[in-house]
Q: What sequence folds into this?
C-alpha cells in the first residue's frame, strides 16, 4: 500500500511542477523534444507512429504529428474503449474530437488491419519517468495493458527534464520504456534503438 501512496504523491507533485511551466516554455521544450525524437534512427525510419493527444501541461504533440505526416508516416491516436486503448489512423487533426476525460480522440475511425503492431514506434506520455526506464501515467494502466500486448512496439517516452527522476516506484506489470526523450537528452534501455 505504501508504494501506491508514493506513486500517487509523485504523480500529484510532478503534475503540479509541470503545470507551473508557462505556455511559451511548454511550446519551446516540446519543439526541442520533437527535433530530438526525429533524430533517433528508429523513429526516423518507422512507417507508423502511435501518438497521443496532449492534455493539460503534457509535452505537446502537434509538431510530432505534422513532422510525421511531412515524412509520409502513418499516424495513429488512441481511443479509450472500455478499459483498453485502441489506436486508429488519423490523417488530419480535424479527425479528432473530445473524448475520455476531455482528451482529444479519433472519431473518424480508420482501422488498417493492425499491421503497425509489429514495427510501430509508440510515443508515450507520462507524469514522471525514471532513469531506469519506468514511467508513471495517471494510474489507470491503459498504456501498460496495451504495451504488454504488443511487446515488439518500440516504446519511447517523452517528457520535460523536470519529469525525470533517478528512480520511481514500479510494479511487475509496469512496462519499461525502450527510450526517453526530453528537451535536453535521450536515454535508451533497448538495443532496438541502435
A:
Amino acid at each position: 500500500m505504501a508504494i501506491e501512496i508514493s506513486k500517487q504523491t509523485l504523480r500529484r507533485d510532478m503534475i503540479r511542477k509541470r503545470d507551473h511551466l508557462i505556455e511559451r516554455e511548454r511550446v519551446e521544450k516540446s519543439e526541442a523534444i520533437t527535433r530530438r525524437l526525429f533524430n533517433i534512427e528508429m523513429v526516423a525510419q518507422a512507417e507508423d507512429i502511435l501518438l497521443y493527444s496532449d492534455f493539460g501541461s503534457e509535452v505537446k504533440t502537434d509538431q510530432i504529428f505534422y513532422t510525421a505526416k511531412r515524412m509520409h508516416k502513418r499516424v495513429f491516436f488512441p481511443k479509450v474503449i472500455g478499459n483498453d486503448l485502441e489506436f486508429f489512423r488519423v490523417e488530419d487533426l480535424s479527425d479528432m474530437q473530445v473524448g475520455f476525460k476531455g482528451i482529444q480522440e479519433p472519431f473518424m475511425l480508420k482501422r488498417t488491419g493492425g499491421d503497425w503492431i509489429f514495427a510501430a514506434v509508440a510515443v508515450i506520455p507520462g507524469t514522471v519517468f525514471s532513469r531506469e526506464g519506468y514511467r508513471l501515467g495517471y494510474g489507470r494502466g491503459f498504456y501498460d495493458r496495451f504495451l504488454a500486448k504488443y511487446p515488439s512496439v518500440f516504446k519511447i517516452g517523452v517528457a520535460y527534464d523536470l519529469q525525470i527522476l533517478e528512480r520511481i516506484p514500479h510494479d511487475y506489470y509496469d512496462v519499461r520504456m525502450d527510450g526517453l526523450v526530453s528537451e535536453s537528452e535521450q536515454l535508451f534501455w533497448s538495443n532496438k534503438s541502435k
